[in-house]
Structures are given as C-alpha cells and as structure tokens.
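Worked Example 4.2. Consider the chain below.
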Amino acid sequence: MRSLDRDGVALAYRDTGGEGRSVVLVHGWCCDHTYFAPQVEHFARLGYRVVAVDLRGHGRSSAPRQAYAMHAFADDVAWMCESLDLGKPILIGHSMGGIVCFDLVARYPGLAAALVMLDAAIVLPLEARAAIPAFLDGLRDKNYRDVLQAYVGRALFVPTDDAAVKADILSKMAGTAQHVMLAAFEGLRDYDPEVARKGLMIPALYVAADEPVARSDMARLRELVPQLHYGRTVGSGHFCQIEVPEQVHAMIDRFLRVSGL
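Applying the procedure from the previous section yields the following structure tokens:
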C-alpha cells in the first residue's frame, strides 16, 4: 500500500503500475480496497494500470472527525487521479463508491473515460429513504456494531451468497470507526443526484445485484444518464463483485469493448 498526503489527510491506495489505461476502483460504505481484490487481479492481467483506493475514513486512510459528504470523497479521488497522472481513467465504484464516482464524473467533466456503478444507490428509492432515520439513530448508539451487522446481514445479502464470505464482510465492516459510519451514511442520505441534471456525456454502465428490491431508482437514473447500459447478476447479493466476479467482469469487459475503450 502507498499513500498520498492531502492537506494532512493520508489517502491510501494500491497501484499495480503499468503502461495501460488506468482503472480506478472505489469501494463502498465501511469497506476498503480489498473488496475489489478480484477486479484488481482481473484488470491488471488484461494490462490496465489498476489503482484501488481507500477513501478517507476507511481502510488505511486517515479518519478525521468531520462530515463525510459524497462530494468530499469525490474531490479526494479526483485529486488522486491528477496526482498519480492517471490520464482519463475508467472509474468503477461499488455501492457508496458508485455514488462517489457518479458525483466525480458529473462535477469533473473530462476527467474520466467511462463510469461503472455496481449496485449503487445513486437515486435512493422512497422506501429506502424512509428507513434511514431509524438506522442512523442505531448507529449513534453504543451498540452501533450490532446495528450495522444486523442491517447489512438483512439488507445486502441473498440466500445464495457464500456464508463464509458474508461473515467476513460483516466482521470487517463493523471495524469501521463509529464517527465515520455515521457521517458517511449521513452523506449518503443527503446526496443529490441532480448534480448530473446537465447530463453525463461519457459511457456509463450500471450493474445491479440479484436482489428483490432495486438499490437505486432506475427510472430516474436513466433520465439523468440516457446512454446508460444496464446489467444484472444472477444469484448474488449486494457484494456481487466478490460473490460472482466472473459475471461482473464479463459485463464490464463487454461494456468497455462496445464503448471503444
């Protein structure tokens, strides 16, 4: 792992190096770069330069006590892309990381070549938004780890997901600092996707997990991104990039080919 210092905040990342086009991987809420291990291996094998980041507050990056808005994460990633001279990378974000990448592309036109969002709640459905206040109250409680594990275990997995993988994910996510859990989820709640109302001009792909309830309001997302490609995994929950990487890779690879990348 390497790190960059941005105004006193250490931002950690893994960089495979190489001369090919860059792929930037951005993880989700309470996760880190290791949740993209299959994608690091896959894209590095294809000759890409792969950079997998730890967002501030996560993994080996600094965790200052502050607000954790989506645009702040996006600013960090944009700054890292420029600092590492990544050219026009392909941005791939899972869950909250998909929102971060969406926001980055909307506010930094010309920075990226393509956008991939993996089961990301870009536009929160009304039912999901209604449940947020009670969940945030739970994250403020001393039993916040139990609250997180109960929510993630119930809402982000399906019966076909691997039990050992599920247990590992729940354990690692619960290790995130409480102030980061809370502030980052508040940032999720407050994110306004209308930042993209002028349209995203680059190729974009949304990959949904095989879940009974959509993670994002796809009708509204398609209005914001008319050129959106869409795919859905078979037999995997929210962490589809870990559960069924071969399906996710096939869709991304095909998307990049038809987009001329």
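The chain has a mean pLDDT of 96. The chain has ten helices and eight strands. Compare this with Example 4.1 before moving on.
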